[in-house]
Design goal:
heterodimer, A: 16 helices, 4 strands, globular, B: 515 residues
Chain lengths: 346, 515
């Protein structure tokens, strides 16, 4: 090994590197897939590219997408949150019942979101202090929050404040849904939070190398708890959006959403082994899921096929990510040829 | 022999410890240790694995708190509740494993402490960090040592990662700098660069403490030597007083000198007439070409060569984890096709790989780690008899001298040397005819090394075990091997009895005989 491997300066960065590094990112690949898919669908059914339909697609992914922003932080911190679907429902019915007891609608909403944050705080505290894996703690919270939701409502839907219905149903600036604007704003804030703030770099650090973070003086416990508070808050907010879309908060709202949320984050490039992930990627991941669902409706294909294809997309996205990381070199043509030769000769 | 905080003529102590003690359960890791690290000098902290070096460093750097005893920094009593407090006071540690965040850039890692010191809502000045990193490297005159600070750490070589950790430590302007095995992943040339930095720190009055198993390198730079054994202070003094030979004797204590001598005396001629246990014929694959050599029963073959010459690749091809393009492998005279380690074990070939970390089942007990490969012989119809498994594990720990509280103890509670013994015992538990070892004593202390050599010698002599070991330590090749095979650029450069000393081995490895 020569000195140049230490200095590593031999390779100068040229203009060629820039487009390549952009193209190689998961986000660019995803965007390409979404565009190609969109064009294909629009060939078969020209209503896909209509403005209303595109807004609709976005609106259907807002709830999953908002939580996926939080899930990406949690995954980067090498944790996971399975409780988001239930926390969403708990926040929504809390807001509904607080409003039903005569409170101001904004107070009701704040309490609802606060309940989500509290769930995250509880999860984070048990994970950090009790050193229980977050998979287990949030599996428990999934059940606890759903149980509380049933207790609060007695199984009956709670009416949401009409004053808040603009969040789920309102449109501004020539038809853009308010919820979509909230979603996009959260994605931008989330991406900046992740890559430009001390908190974001701390999350990356604890997920990438816990020991290095600890000896580097990073408040590991506090950061980990805060990521759970963040996803709890976003789940609460998603609950408000979800319930104001239909005007009522139901006890069964958001059942099974955790899987879509994780799928969106993973399609967007988040790694379950921590350290890596992108908020913009999660946004595009959520969009891809939405476009797929919309395509199946527009093309009048079987909903069973829809479920199957979404499953395929999740696996393909993970494989693509592995290939991008260079973990699939053993499948390259030259390596396969070598093996084949070795087998025939032996 | 000085035992007080004053180091005689060694100059004023930057950091000294008085009566330091630390226990983990029943194990006394450090007992009543008093010593001093003088300012403006390089101190070599020597001792076998388990002698208490790591514990001492952890106590000095705030990673652990002592049970009793005091720390004195620049003559004043100090106590560090955390590594951060120690760093703030000027006591910095460079760990054996560089503690870096792979997903962040070099610059972000250099200023990692910012993440702890600045509030979470603050904006990270990542572009500024790159600029600050350039200035820092400029100030330290180390710009050539590192890639551009905007490079993500995941793209760095092991040596460059180590350098990032060192630069980060230097950026804290340390008064006392602990280097814990800093050069174990560095090549000779990279070590030279590191030592140039160390010399500059010495000029600046920093107390540098160097921990390394590469004694020759340690002795090329130290001004002061401290020896620990079994958690106690043994000796301190200048290197001409405690020279390399004496240091080894002090580290090992009296008990192990006899073993070393016995191993040396046990060297016999090669078993020329014994039958061939393993025969490689024209073996060719990725990274090696036309490998022809044999290992006979009762013979110990040492394979030398530079790192990257293709030695590990050959071994991996033989046990079937790497494809073979051409050539054949015969075991006990029978030509075989080996598709993987499982088949290799059936043919009587055992393999202990280079990386201990990846070979050990970390969250399992010593007993599990010992018996995991032979479980099918410890029961029937897929059921394992826990009684027989435990009896086997006990037998193996006894036979191979594994020092452990019990067979139920976690493997990670063992020292590196003892873990290596467990791996060796595990490989031998399947009663192989051929044992392949890749770097069998890396990071293992002198005493354990001698024990491992003695075990291999005895197995070769009494049971006719054929041993093929790969080593980058010349001393090890010369001391242990009956025959030496040198690999250079994937080809055999030398295959000869081990009776000509180290010169022909070095010459063959470097290619100086053939140009």
């Amino acid at each position: 090994m020569s000195a140049s491997t230490v200095s590593g300066r031999a390779r100068k960065r040229s203009w060629m590197d820039v487009p390549l590094s952009v193209v190689k990112r998961q986000e660019a690949g995803l965007l390409g897939v979404i565009i190609v898919l969109g064009l294909l669908v629009s060939l078969a059914n020209d209503s896909f590219l209509r403005k209303d339909n595109l807004y609709n697609v976005l609106q259907t992914v807002v709830v999953v997408g908002v939580i996926a922003v939080g899930q990406t932080f949690v995954l980067i911190a090498k944790e996971i949150d399975l409780s988001v679907g239930s926390v969403l429902a708990l926040s929504a019915v809390t807001a509904g019942s607080v409003y039903g007891s005569g409170a101001d609608p904004w107070v009701a909403m704040a309490v609802g979101v606060g309940v989500g944050a509290a769930c995250g705080l509880a999860v984070g505290t048990v994970v950090v202090i009790g050193r229980v894996s977050s998979f287990i703690v949030t599996l428990g919270m999934l059940s606890i929050a759903r149980g509380l939701t049933q207790l609060i409502t007695g199984g009956l839907p709670q009416t949401m404040p009409p004053e808040l219905s603009f969040i789920g149903q309102g449109r501004v600036l020539g038809g853009i849904p308010v919820s979509v604007i909230i979603f996009i704003a959260l994605v931008i804030i989330g991406q900046l939070l992740l890559t430009r703030t001390i908190f974001g770099l701390r999350v990356t650090a604890i997920g990438d190398n816990d020991a290095a973070a600890r000896t580097g003086g990073i408040p590991v416990a506090r950061t980990r708890i805060l990521t759970f508070v963040l996803i709890g808050t976003l789940a609460g907010l998603a609950g408000i959006i979800f319930s104001t879309q239909v005007g009522v908060a139901e006890a069964q709202a958001g059942t099974g959403y955790e899987l879509d949320v994780i799928a969106a984050a993973v399609i967007g490039g988040a790694s379950l082994s921590g350290g890596r992930g992108s908020i913009v990627g999660a946004f595009l991941g959520a969009c891809l899921l939405g476009v797929l669902r919309n395509a199946f409706i527009l093309l009048a294909l079987s909903p069973f096929l829809q479920q199957l294809s979404i499953g395929l997309v999740i696996v393909l996205a993970a494989l693509f990510d592995q290939a991008r990381q260079g973990n699939l070199r053993h499948l390259s043509l030259s390596s396969l040829r070598r093996r084949l030769l070795a087998r025939t000769r032996a | 022999m000085t035992t007080s905080a004053q180091v005689g003529n060694a100059g004023p102590a930057a950091l000294s410890v008085v009566g330091l003690a630390k226990s983990f359960g029943a194990v006394k890791a450090l007992r009543d240790v008093s010593l001093a690290f003088p300012a403006g000098q390089v101190t070599g902290l020597l001792g076998e694995n388990g002698a208490g070096k790591s514990t001492l460093i952890r106590l000095c750097s705030g990673e652990m708190q002592p049970d009793s005893g005091r720390l004195r920094l620049d003559g004043e009593d100090v106590g560090f509740g955390s590594p951060l407090e120690a760093i703030a006071a000027g006591v910095v540690v460079v760990h054996q494993e560089p503690l870096l965040i792979s997903e962040l850039t070099v610059a972000d890692n250099l200023f990692l402490y910012d993440l702890g010191e600045r509030p979470g809502y603050a904006i990270a000045r990542r572009k500024d960090n790159v600029q600050r990193a350039r200035e820092l490297l400029d100030r330290l005159q180390m710009t050539d040592y590192l890639p551009d600070p905007s490079t993500p750490c995941r793209e760095l070589s092991a040596a460059a990662r180590q350098m990032v950790d060192i630069v980060r430590a230097l950026s804290r302007r340390p008064k006392v700098l602990f280097l814990d095995e800093p050069n174990s992943s560095l090549t000779h040339e990279e070590s030279e660069r590191l030592f140039a930095v160390v010399k500059r720190l010495r000029r600046d009055g920093v107390a540098v403490v160097l921990v390394s198993h590469r004694l020759a390198e340690v002795y090329s730079i130290v001004d002061h030597v401290i020896v620990l054994r079994d958690g106690t202070f043994v000796a301190a003094g200048p290197p001409d007083e405690i020279d390399e030979k004496r240091a080894v004797a002090l580290m090992a204590g009296d008990r192990k000198r006899a073993v070393v001598a016995e191993v040396m005396a046990d060297r016999r001629g090669t078993a020329e007439q014994a039958e061939v246990a393993l025969d490689l014929n024209g073996l060719t694959g990725e990274g090696f070409t036309d490998i022809d050599f044999t290992v006979r029963r009762g013979e110990i073959v040492g394979m030398a060569g530079l790192v990257g010459a293709g030695r590990t690749e050959i071994a991996e091809a033989v046990i079937g984890v790497r494809p073979v393009a051409r050539g054949s492998i015969s075991v006990g005279g029978r030509r075989v096709r080996i598709s993987g380690p499982g088949r290799a074990q059936k043919f009587g070939i055992a393999y202990v790989a280079e990386e201990r970390r990846t070979e050990v089942f970390h969250s399992q007990s010593v007993g599990y780690n010992l018996t995991v490969r032979i479980l099918s012989t410890l029961g029937r119809l897929g059921w394992v008899s826990p009684r027989r498994a435990d009896a086997k594990a006990r037998e193996l720990t006894r036979r191979f001298g594994v020092k452990t509280a019990s067979t139920g103890a976690l493997i990670t509670s063992l020292s590196g040397g003892n873990q290596q013994k467990v791996l060796l015992a595990r490989a031998l538990a399947a009663k192989p005819k051929v044992l392949i070892l890749d770097e069998p004593t890396r990071g293992v202390d002198v005493g354990t090394k001698a024990e491992i050599y003695a075990t291999l010698r005895e197995l070769a002599r009494t049971e006719g075990l054929a041993v093929w070991f790969i080593s980058s330590e010349l001393e090890e090749i010369v001391e242990l091997a009956d025959r030496v095979v040198v690999i250079r650029r994937g080809r055999i450069a030398l295959d000869a009895p081990n009776n000509a000393g180290p010169q022909p081995i070095v010459a063959a490895a470097m290619g100086s005989t053939e140009g």
